Every structure is written in structure tokens, then in C-alpha cells.
Amino acid sequence: MLVSRQNLRIKYVRRLHQKKFRDSEGKFLIEGIRFLEEAINANWPLEAVFYEPSLESGDRGRLLLGNLSKSGAALIAVDKLLFSEIADTESPQGILAVAKKPLEFDFNPVEWSKAQRDLLVLVDGVRDPGNLGTIIRSADAAGADCVFILKGTVDPYNTKTLRSTMGSIFHIPIINVDDRRGFLTGLLAGGWKLVVGDPAAQKLLCHADLTRDTVLVIGSEASGVSADLHKDAGSLVKIPMPGRAESLNAGVAAGIMLYETVRQRMAAGRIIARP
């Protein structure tokens, strides 16, 4: 059982709380019983699992550790006090794991359109981890094909973001966009339509055609989407708000836009579920 803060494995876990180190290593941390159960169900590659020995005293904990052992991940017992220092939550459940980030892949907008993988979410400048996690979770629930993250957005592998996804991080591809201009140029050349939410827009969301090759663009609450995305937008739309609230947070707005898309596609007889 690990008891020292100076242990190299413990130091490695500590460093994975930093985005720069996560990026360089291609790893991230997941924490909690339910989150680890989701990872197993998704056959997600786990490198090492750190747990408090007390976890073995409960049926659910023993079952989880047994399944993790079968997955090939290294199981490492950690002293309770030391575990509380490497965990990110205020009330740790006594288990966390080092997981591998998914491999990047080439996005071909033309081929995806032909295959009817035609609903994307593009996140621009959302800084709140809870909002980004909600966007990812909503995109997963609505059957979106991918969530693309532009620079200036909070890291999707931030532990607070991960918890907010409620496991959806394992179900839908999350891709960081490095070449912003090249990515947008490829989308437009491939016939995709950027649908940008803007409270000042004239068109209502429900009046935009969201049935094919749609990219829902979600900006930050503070400043909305960037100027270049406004310029490239195929539709500027607003969510009707007959009440007195001035705005919606980014996570809620994304959910509304996604489910208007689902509604339109169901009405058009489209199969919306991802395989």
C-alpha cells in the first residue's frame, strides 16, 4: 500500500491535475465509483487504478475492483489520508484511475455527410467546466456525432468538466481544434451549415432548417461566439424567451438547440440514434 507523498506514482497522479501535463502525456484522471463503472462499460483503456483498501469492504466496491482487475489495469492501494490529497473531490469515494485520451482522428466533412454523421457541436470560448460538461452530456443524449472544442474553451479533461459529463465523455468523440481557420473552411466547403445562437438574431431557432449537415455553435455567456463564426454562420438564430430573464447559460442553450434539432429530424422521419 502506498503511504508516501514522494512515491513516483503519487507524484505522477498529482501532475495529471495540470492541463499541460495531461496534454503532453495523453492521459487524464477519472474519479468515483460510478465514473469507473461507466469506463468499464465503455471498455475505456485504463492504465492504473488507485483505491483505498476500505473500498473492498462493500459489495459494489469489490465487484468494481474485480472488473477493473479483469480489464488489465494495475490496481494500487493507497493510504486513506494520502488518497484524499490526490483526489479532486471534497468527499472522495476512494477510487480514481489514470485513463488514456482517445486517439485523434481526421475529420472529413464530406465523408461524414455522406454517412449521415451530420450533427456536430462546436464550442467556442466556454470557460465554465460545468457548462462544458453539460454541453457534452446533452450532445451525447441528443445523438450528436462529435463535439469540437475551439481554443479558449475550458479543457474537456478538467476533472470538474468530466464529472459534469456524467460519463458521456466515453460515448461521444471530443476533438480539440488546433487549426481553427482550416477547420471552418473545410466545414463550409463540405456544405455544412453553422447555426449560431445570438440573442440579437431576427430568426427564431425553430425557423432554421436543422435537418441536415448542421453544426450547432455554442459561445460563452459573457461574450457569445467569436466574430469569425458570426461571419461564417449559415443561420443566426435566437431562442425565444418570453419571460424576464435576459439570457440562458451556455449549457441550457445548447440543450435547447440540440433538442430542437432532434424534434425537426424526428418530424422529418430521420433515424437520429447513433449506432
Automatic annotation (TrEMBL):
<comment type="similarity">
    <text>Belongs to the class IV-like SAM-binding methyltransferase superfamily. RNA methyltransferase TrmH family.</text>
</comment>
<dbReference type="InterPro" id="IPR013123">
    <property type="entry name" value="SpoU_subst-bd"/>
</dbReference>
<dbReference type="InterPro" id="IPR001537">
    <property type="entry name" value="SpoU_MeTrfase"/>
</dbReference>
<dbReference type="GO" id="GO:0008173">
    <property type="term" value="F:RNA methyltransferase activity"/>
</dbReference>
<keyword id="KW-0489">Methyltransferase</keyword>
<dbReference type="GO" id="GO:0003723">
    <property type="term" value="F:RNA binding"/>
</dbReference>
<dbReference type="InterPro" id="IPR029028">
    <property type="entry name" value="Alpha/beta_knot_MTases"/>
</dbReference>
<dbReference type="Pfam" id="PF00588">
    <property type="entry name" value="SpoU_methylase"/>
</dbReference>
<dbReference type="Pfam" id="PF22435">
    <property type="entry name" value="MRM3-like_sub_bind"/>
</dbReference>
<dbReference type="InterPro" id="IPR051259">
    <property type="entry name" value="rRNA_Methyltransferase"/>
</dbReference>
<dbReference type="GO" id="GO:0032259">
    <property type="term" value="P:methylation"/>
</dbReference>
<dbReference type="InterPro" id="IPR029026">
    <property type="entry name" value="tRNA_m1G_MTases_N"/>
</dbReference>
<protein>
    <submittedName>
        <fullName>RNA methyltransferase, TrmH family</fullName>
    </submittedName>
</protein>
<feature type="domain" description="RNA 2-O ribose methyltransferase substrate binding">
    <location>
        <begin position="29"/>
        <end position="105"/>
    </location>
</feature>
<dbReference type="InterPro" id="IPR053888">
    <property type="entry name" value="MRM3-like_sub_bind"/>
</dbReference>
<dbReference type="GO" id="GO:0006396">
    <property type="term" value="P:RNA processing"/>
</dbReference>
<dbReference type="InterPro" id="IPR029064">
    <property type="entry name" value="Ribosomal_eL30-like_sf"/>
</dbReference>
<dbReference type="GO" id="GO:0005737">
    <property type="term" value="C:cytoplasm"/>
</dbReference>
<keyword id="KW-0808">Transferase</keyword>
